[in-house]
Amino acid sequence: HVQLVESGGGSVQAGGSLRLSCAASRYPCLGWFRQAPGKEREGVAGISGDSASTYYSDSVKGRFTISRDNGANRMYLEMNSLKPEDTAKYSCAADWSRLTSSSWYRGAYYAIWGQGTQVTVS
């Protein structure tokens, strides 16, 4: 059973920064999702296999940066200027299909998921 592993979550004050990491193989399609209590899962960012294409939700654009290191088989989410509304459980997701602008934010598009890491902003 293939599963991704996230790390780097924690508690931070508003305006602070965190960097999430995901141990993932060289999937061509990788993404970060988050889910807060009582809310639907939200696609936060997506990145293609060659890092040429990146996508962000409007809620994090300009504050978060997704990146990947294929040599180290890792994906990252650099989160700056964090806000209390960023509080959620963050999960990384992967798929062998090609990342597209119309699919990266759809959870059903990804076949492989991590357990998630909690981010709390106060």
**Main beta-sheet annotation:** 7 strands, mixed
Principal-axes geometry comes out as globular
Structural class: mainly beta
Radius of gyration: 13 Å
| N to C succession of SSEs | EEEEEEEEEEE
Query: Total helix count?
Result: 0
Structure description:
The chain is an all-beta fold. It contains no helices and 11 strands. The strands form 2 sheets. Strands 2, 4, 5, 6, 9, 10 and 11 form a 7-stranded mixed sheet that branches. A hairpin with a 4-residue loop joins strand 7 and strand 8.
List the helices and strands and how they pair.
Blueprint lengths: L4 E3 L2 E3 L5 E6 L5 E7 L6 E7 L5 E3 L7 E6 L4 E6 L8 E8 L16 E2 L3 E5 L1
Parallel strand pairs: 2-11
Antiparallel strand pairs: 1-3, 3-8, 4-5, 4-9, 5-6, 7-8, 9-10, 9-11
Keywords:
about 120 residues, mainly beta, 4-stranded antiparallel beta sheet, 11 strands, globular
What's the gist of this structure?
The chain is mainly beta and 122 residues long. The chain is built from no helices and eleven strands. The model has no long low-confidence stretch (mean pLDDT 94).
